[in-house]
Every structure is written in C-alpha cells, then in structure tokens.
Design goal:
Largest sheet: 8 strands, parallel
CATH topology of the largest domain: TIM Barrel
CATH architecture of the largest domain: Alpha-Beta Barrel
CATH superfamily of the largest domain: Aldolase class I
Shape: globular
Strand content: 15-25%
Structural class: alpha/beta
Bound molecules: flavin mononucleotide
CATH class of the largest domain: Alpha Beta
Radius of gyration: 19 Å
Low-confidence stretches: none
Length: 344
Amino acid sequence: MTIKTKITEILGIKHPIIAAPMGPFYTTELTIAVSNAGGLGVLSHIGLAEKDPVEEMKKDMLHVVEHTDKPFGFNIRTSRMEPYASVLCHDIPKFIMENPKLKEQCMYALTSAGSAKTLPSSSTFQKLKEESEIKHFHVAPALWLAEKCVSAGVDGLVVTGGEGGGHQSYEMVSTLVLLQQVQQKYPDFPIVACGGFATGEGLAAALALGAGAVAMGSRFIASKESEFHETYKNVVPPAHAQDTTMATGVFGPIRLWKNKYAIEHVMIGSKEEKLAQESTLSADDIIETMRAYELAYKGNIDDGAVLLGQSIGLIDDIESVSNIIEKTVKDAEAALKRATDLII
Ligand SMILES: Cc1cc2nc3c(=O)[nH]c(=O)nc-3n(C[C@H](O)[C@H](O)[C@H](O)COP(=O)(O)O)c2cc1C
C-alpha cells in the first residue's frame, strides 16, 4: 500500500516524507538515501568555515544525481544575515537549467528564515520555473507568515511549529495549532507539516490535519546515512522530549539539546529585545555562533550548539533511512485505519 497525497503527486515521490534541511551542515548522503527510499531528500544551505555555499551546493547536486535518479530538493536561507542568499537564488537555478538531469530531478526549492520573495524575484528562477516542474515552498512558522508566503506566490508551505529542532521563529506556535490555522485559511493549498514528526502516528495526524507530507529533521539525524558525527547522533536515542531548550541563535531563535552551551545561551527577553540585539550583531558574533554549530557537527557535544527538536523524545534508535521511512509509512497506514474504524 502507498499513501498518495497532493504533495506526493506534485513532487513525484512515492512516500509523503521529506527530509528537513539541516544547514549549515552537509546532508548530501542523507538526501540520496531519503530520495532512494521513496521520500524527498533535501540538500542543505552549507555555512561551514571556509566553504563557499554556492560551490558546495553545485557539487552536492552533481553528487546527488550521480547516485539517485529520484526527485530531490534544496534549501536556501534567505535571511538578510545570509551573505550568499541572493547569489544562491541567482546561480543555483541557472546551474540546474544547464544540466538536463538536474532539471528533471530537482523538484523542490525550499526557502526559509527570510523573505519568500527573494527566490521568485530571481530572473533565473523565473526561467527555470517556466521550463521545468520545480516547485517553490517556503517555511511558515506562523499564520501571518503563511499569508505573506501565499501572497509572494509560493507553490506550497512548510508549516513548522515551535517544537521543531534548529532554526525557529519568535512566534513559537505549536505545530498542532499552526497546522489547523493554516488549513482553515488555505484548505486546498499544498502543505508540508514540520516540527515534532518522527513516527507513523505523527504522519497520520498530519495527514488528518490536511497536510500532504511531513518533513523530519531530528529523526533523520539519527539515521545510519546522515553525515552528523556519531557522538551527535548518539545524543538522540536516550534523550527525552524535555531535553531541549530555546536559545538565542545568530539568525533568530534556535531549539537546542540542553547542554552546557545551550544553558549559557538560553533565550531570555522579549522578541523586541532580541530583534534589537540581532541588529547590533557583529561579524565576530556571527563567526562565534557558526563555530559553535561546527563544533557540535564535529562531535564536541558539550561546547557546541546541538540543534535538535522535541521529537528526540520519540526516537530510540539509529536506523537506516529505508527502515525509518518504511516503518513510518506502515505505522501511519495502521493509525489511519484505526482512526477510520472509529467512524460508525
Ligand atoms: C541540525 C539542524 C539544522 C537545521 N538547519 C536548518 C536550515 O538550515 N534551514 C532551515 O530552514 N531549517 C533548518 N532546521 C530546521 C529543520 O529544517 C526542521 O524545521 C526541524 O528539524 C523540524 O523539527 P524536527 O527536528 O522535530 O523534525 C534545522 C534543524 C536541525 C535539527
């Protein structure tokens, strides 16, 4: 059996499961594994020291199409604090257009953490859209932001609630409430549910709430194929849902596993105070935070910033991506059947 939704149809994938982007880190092998297993793998916006995000994205894309003939996607963080956002929005669509395999397989351009208009206003992306099946989705962490995305002309929304790992917004609305808000306002719009998903029961709930797929981050960190350091992966299985906290990140709030770093950077103060603080950030502050991400990625889970979501409380193994996807779909089918059996 398979679960067919509007999202599986427009993206050309078998299962309604998408890998959430996890920059500034590499998720290249993860992308290949998720796409090969029938989900949609998504390349992350690289932001590691001495790496050019444009060149890394191009290299990653070529590597992906060499190892899978299935659809995949990519993420660009369009925050005004991202120096490469506009260049990525211009150069990557052009790069895709010039390579027939990329043009056929790259189905999903996901922007986040900034304006939903940056990508559609790029002339190369407009051309790519005319000539391919690529769809543009943007991350919406609040209803008013979903409204902005829809007016920017996106093809779909990634509705991400406050329980999710990594980059967050100041809104902190739960996925459960946000999904209902967005679904009520845009009942026919393609929606991916994100933040807190790691099980088949979660996928079933998202589908019942009108989403056409879930995107999972923390679940895929704890997979055999993910590029995260073993020490980082090993944090996940024993962790509890309450072991994360919100901290002040360089591009806004972030949800972190509660370690020494998170406790020292725990988020305090109002949204206004934090936004004022952000506007005074220096280049050194940005480098310092990026260093904390990189430390964790390389295995120093005490001093580094370990980005993870509350869904870690649902994950108790490090599994292969194909087993994760197979089990999630099987359990979702069972949960959906149990739910429909309640109707007499
Ligand atoms: C390690 C890590 C890095 C992340 N980096 C990004 C990013 O670069 N861009 C983005 O839009 N979201 C980013 N996120 C958020 C995820 O895309 C997604 O919203 C989140 O993982 C969902 O929650 P979950 O972990 O419970 O599945 C990141 C999350 C994690 C855990």
